[in-house]
Structure formats: C-alpha cells, structure tokens
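To fix ideas, we reproduce below a protein record of this kind.
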Amino acid sequence: MVGSAQPTTITVQSNIEHPFYLYLNGEQINKIPTSKVEAHDLVLTDYQIRIEFRDITQPILKETVKPKSGKNSIYKVKIDTLKKQHRLELYETLKPSDVSEFSESYYHMPDYEGKLGCAWPVDESVHEDLLNNLKGQEIEAPMLFKIRSFVSSRCLTVDQFKPILALVEEEHEKEELAEFAYSYLYDRENFSELYSEFQYSQTVADIKRYIQKHTGNRR
C-alpha cells in the first residue's frame, strides 16, 4: 500500500444493539465491544476492515475501504439480522476533530490477556443479590429469561457466572444458557472453567462445537 500525506481518521458506527470489535489490517483497535470506534493517525491509502460483533452468532464483516486523506471518513454498519448479511457504507466525510470522543475504560484482570466481552464486572454485592434471588426458586422459562437479561445487560466474569449456571438443573437448559452467555462474559476466554458444571461430556463437546462454529476457536 502507498502512504498518504496527511494523517486520516476512520470512524465506524453500528446501532447500540450490535457492539463490535474493529480490526484495521489485522490490528485490534478497541478492547471493549462498542457501537462506535475511532482509529486516528492513519497514513495508508486503503485498509482492510474486519468487524467482529460481540454476539458471536452474527457474521464477521470484512471490507476494504479507502478513507479520504486528512479527513474523518465515517462508515456505518448496516445490519440485516434476518439474512445475517451485514455491510459497511460510507456515511459522510468530515474534518477531523482536534479532540477524540473515543476512549476506553475497563477492568484489568490480573494475568488475563484475552478478548473482553464487557468492561466492568458487577460488584460482588450485586452478584450476591442475584444469587440470593435465584436460590430456592424453580429455574423455569421466566427465570431463565431473567438470567439471560442480566447476563447480557450487566457484566459478569466466568467465576461470577459459574454459580448462576450451577442453579440450572436441566442439562439442555444449562447448555443453552452457557452458549448464550459466552458472548457477554468479561473473560470469555476462560470459558472452559465452566465445563465442570455439566454432567455429560457430550454436552461439553456440543458447546465447544458451537463456539468453534461461530468464532473459529476451540475453548
């Protein structure tokens, strides 16, 4: 690729329901999945964009873009959730701002360098309140919906999610909940620590296949 004369900015936006990780020429730009990412001080004439959505069931989006030199090229992700055929469109080109609106703040877990599903795990008091609310109740459809809502809207580590998963008795319901939670857990690459909660080795094998299908990784 040929270098351009002036530093350039690329901004990528999606709707708030589809936070993502942005890669430019293989380099991960944001650590935390979000719906708006800015990359500054770019000097090449074209970039390979790769967008991985936090929700691993959404397809990876790959496109080559040619941002305008010295400008902020703003691209929007067009989401087709039914066909799962997403695309990137140039929305507008602006003069770069002197002050970036993009910044990241997140918890740094000791000895963990993997991908983050969320930024700040909930306080233990919040976690304990949820556990106490769930204990003694039958884990049926309405309660499973409540757990899913909590997992996707808050932030849990694998260690925090494990005792919640343990409350689910039916193996197939436990499997479905674990597969759903993978996208949202803070330290998703520690997911294998949950496998001891399952009764059957076949269930673990099915979960591994599910994750591999959507991420290309073995966990």
Remarks:
- The chain has a mean pLDDT of 91.
